[in-house]
Amino acid sequence: MKPLILVVDDEPEAVELVEFNLKQAGFKVTTAADGEEALKKAKATLPSLIVLDLMLPEIDGLEVCKLLRRDPTTAAIPIIMLTAKAAEVDRVVGLELGADDYVTKPFSPRELVLRIRKLLQRREGAVEKRETLRFGDLLIDVPKHLATWRGKSFDLTATEFKLLTVLTQRAGRVQSRDALLRDVWEYDSLIDTRTVDTHMRRLREKLGAAAKHLDTVRGVGYRFVE
Questions:
Q1: Where does a domain end: 125, 145, 160?
Q2: Checking CA distances to 7, which of 68, 101, 106, 193 falls within 20 to 30 Å?
Q3: Contacts of 19 (CB under 8 A, 6+ apart)
Q4: Are 84 and 155 in the same domain?
Q5: Distance separating the N- and C-terminal Cα atoms of the chain
Q6: pLDDT of residue 85
């Protein structure tokens, strides 16, 4: 289950350096060379994290950050700004617009990798370490592999339970079909995404009234809503 990182920079050498080090560290990487491409790729791939340069053609990094935070499908994606602008005012503006961290050029690739890992761990750890998840009448006991609605248990397959658990652990955040294939089925290469749709349909049928928590985001994927 390799996290996907979107690297946005218009300098080919910088992109190559970051991409090489991230892949060496076990991440999957996709890239964009300008702000417009970054917005399209962020919405299409829903990466685990975005490394975003400020000085970009078309749409600058600050505006990209602002637009990503306004869009519900990308609002929760962590952003690390990577830029040559070292002035304190630039850092403050970037963080105020919703960036999670700020790294200035020249930078240590090793430090960037460590910051990315720390940010991802901090973001996922708090929820995913919980052994039980409760949303109203829906209770999910992860160690017992048990999901219940008003005390009545569901007969879920291992894949269906994992799919439900992944969605609930990331409640409120849209999960693309590709991301679910990667995190639930652990497929590194893309296969027919209808696999996800088929399992979601079966899961909804089994959940009955509790299926109200499962939201379809047209053209993107699925989201667990509280």
A1: 125
A2: 193
A3: 7, 29, 31
A4: no
A5: 26
A6: 64
Cα–Cα dist 136/138, whole Å? 6
What does the block give as tokens for 198? Answer: 């088929």
CA distances from 94 to 40, 80, 82, 87, 97 (A): 21, 9, 10, 11, 5
Q: Which helix (H) or strand (E) holds 202?
A: helix 194-207
The proportion of the chain whose per-residue pLDDT surpasses 90, expressed as a percent, equals: 37
111 three-state secondary structure: helix
Q: Look at residue 170 in the predicted model and tell me its pLDDT.
A: 86
Q: Decide: 80 and 122 in contact? Cβ < 8 Å.
A: no
Expressed as residue numbers, the domain containing 91 is: 4-125
Place of tokens 């017992």: 144
User: In terms of domains, do 112 and 9 share one?
Assistant: yes
Q: How far apart are CA 8 and CA 32, in angstroms?
A: 5
Tell me: do 215 and 120 sit in the same domain.
no
Task: For residue 95, give the CATH number of its domain.
Answer: 3.40.50.2300
The chain-wide mean pLDDT, for the chain, equals: 85
Total structural domains in the chain?
2
Q: Where are the alpha helices (DSSP H) in 25-176?
A: 35-45, 61-70, 88-96, 109-128, 158-169
Lowest mean pLDDT segment, chosen from 18-22, 138-142, 169-173, 208-212: 169-173
